[in-house]
Amino acid sequence: SYELTQPPSVSVSPGQTASITCSGDKLGDKYACWYHHKPGQSPVLVIHEDTKRPSGIPERFSGSNSGNTATLTISGTQAMDEGDYYCQAWDSTTAVFGGGTKLTVL
Amino acid sequence: QVTLKESGPALVKPTQTLTLTCTFSGFSLTTSGMCVSWIRQPPGKALEWLARIDWDDDKFYSTSLKTRLTISKDTSKNQVVLTMTNMGPVDTATYYCARTRKAATGDYAFDVWGQGTLVTVSS
Q1: CA nearest B98: which of B80, B117, B77, B112?
Q2: How far is Cα B58 from Cα B88, in angstroms, rounded to an integer?
Q3: Are B98 and B109 in contact (CB under 8 A)?
Q4: Do B70 and B83 contact (CB within 8 A), yes or no?
Q5: Chain A nearest C-alpha distance from B110 (Å)
Q6: Taking chain B (123 residues) in consecutive chunks of 10 residues, what is each chunk's mean pLDDT?
Q7: Strand partners of residue B24
Q8: Which residues of A touch B108 (CB under 8 A)?
Q9: Which of A57, A92, A94, B84 has the most neighbouring CB atoms within 10 Å?
């Protein structure tokens, strides 16, 4: 079965740039989505189709996907950006999530 | 405004069948490109996709769970129902339903999520 691998944790200082990676076999041939999940809340879609931001998502969120790696980049990270981030892709008709990355802003 | 809300039992006994209902508003499952998915998250673990039903009634299931899952829709009630048979303690999780939209590229994204419902499996 298809697998997506994320680092368990990433730390960033406020105002700096955070990068979260997601690795999978030929992931660049698929589309990647990213979701932000805060404790006690529902996940929120922040990037779809590799690079697109849904309405209401700040411009500081951006995405890329090439080769075997998709990357979520948060520029000028704010405290409100803390939480878990999940990448997701479709392997044919099956959705696959990465293991999640806990982003800490300190 | 698009909203989804999950409902169902908070406690299920081992071997029982779980039935969850997703009631939604703000969109129609008869519209081309509209779908609803179920996703769960065990405590302290990652998100796991379970199933998807499309506007044309196509249905798709997690490979590892497909023998236990059934997804259906009632478009007149704006509801999607998921049943999972033979529940066990490992199925304890928060279960979410999410609107799933098909983009022009053919990709699908979970763009609006319900609040989730915690289901505990215990005798």
Answers
A1: B112
A2: 28
A3: no
A4: yes
A5: 7
A6: 98 98 97 97 98 98 98 97 98 98 94 98 97
A7: B4
A8: 90, 95
A9: B84
